[in-house]
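Q: Structure tokens for this one, please.
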Amino acid sequence: MPNQKASIINIAIVGGGKYCKELLEKGTIDYKRGEVNARFVAVADTETNSPGMLVARKMNLLTVSDYHKLYSPEYEIHLIVILTPEQDILEDILATKPGNIRALSYHAFELFWKAIAIEEQKLRARNEEIETILNGIQDFIVVITPEMDIVEVNDAFLEKMGYLHEEVIGKKCHKIFQGLDQQCSIEAITCPLNDVIKNKRPHRQVITRINRKGDPRYIEVSTFPVWEKDGKISKFVEISRDITKRKKDEEEITRRLERLVEERTKQLKETHDKLLHQDKMASLGKLSASVVHEINNPIAGVLNLTKLMKRIIDEEKSSMKNKAQFNQYLDLMETETERISRIVSNLLAFSRQSRMELRKVNINQLIEKILFLNSNLLKINRVKVVKSLNPDVPDLIGSEDQLQQVFMNFVSNGVEAIEVKGKGSLYIETNYSLKDNEMVVSFRDTGIGIPMENRSRLFEPFFTTKKKGKGVGLGLSVAYGIIQEHGGSISLDYGNEAGTSFIIRLPLFQSHNVDGGPNGGD
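A: Here is the predicted structure, written as tokens:
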């Protein structure tokens, strides 16, 4: 069925008194109520300056002094509303009007108008009550049209954001909230209205808005759509609150916590360094005790040769034979003295605080150095060292001091594990793979092994199965950290049935610049 345009009802008023004025001011000239269109087109009154006639002329309506003229077909009047109480006027209109024009009597109008006034009064009181409630709410309440126009706000919004009522009503929300002349479309500013339209449900978020002075404020916004019967959104109701103080308090608390964490981390690092030094000194003391005999032997040799040379000098005259013998003694003394010097130098190097100074490191030479330093410890504990050091392994880039500390720890742990059994072997192997950019170093002993329940805790700081005074449980933890700093890994080989086997993997080349180049220079 084709759409038909709704008929327009033209209404004329007879009587320009108080009721006429109120009806024209409160009613609309063109209004719709469902499918009905109606409008006021004319006012008739013998008094040309009556209140209703004056309003009618301002509204550009037809004004006549004789209501009979309203019957003319050219005005197309459909309804005459009689707003004067004279009975004779009512009777005359009913007798003279054409049949196509209807009439509403004064008393019927007055009845309806008073009823409407009572409802209007109730509605006004209700509106005032709602307005009081809204203005008493400390949250911001803003009503916005789909065209982004602000049509209502409560007092809390005006007070906190620094606006007057007339500065906000009728203005675009993006102008008031963000100071923008166009709709919020940049990535930094999210429009909550767009999210409501997109998702077709209420939306909540925290956004930044500016007040009248241009100061940024953190606002927690909840946006609710108001739906029309046809499914379209007629308005948006925003309920929001200023959480700037809370956000700033949270940021301040976060800063304080960060400072506390930083200070606590610094304290823990200092404590860790002290404990690490203690652990290292304990190891050094144990190592020193084991090399005393190693140092005493060359010292005793040097002392005996010195006494022998003095006795020869005292008892015999100098001769070429004595000179040659003296040279032989001096060579032995030099060799033994250099041996003592190497042992002492290695001990001093181990006792220094390690720093991450990267340079070329020959792993095989480093292992030989450590075995030399521990030779007497190995001999005393009847530990046989079986080496399988690949002579072709290239130098890697790392901290020689720290890697020495790691390997020293594995040798020391291996000796202690074998010591319990009385004797055993320590297997040390080095290999490499250029394809995988990897150096592999393994330490395997035939000692007592590690119980299954302790294996998962091996690298935990301060975890130790040693007796009191033997260590603080930092050796493997520190070794693990050093190898990780070098970009490598340590793992326990569970396939070894007897004893313990550790596998260390280290990258051959790192991205650090050492001696002029990323791979170690010349």
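A few notes: The first helix runs from residue 18 to 26. The two ends are 95 Å apart (CA to CA).
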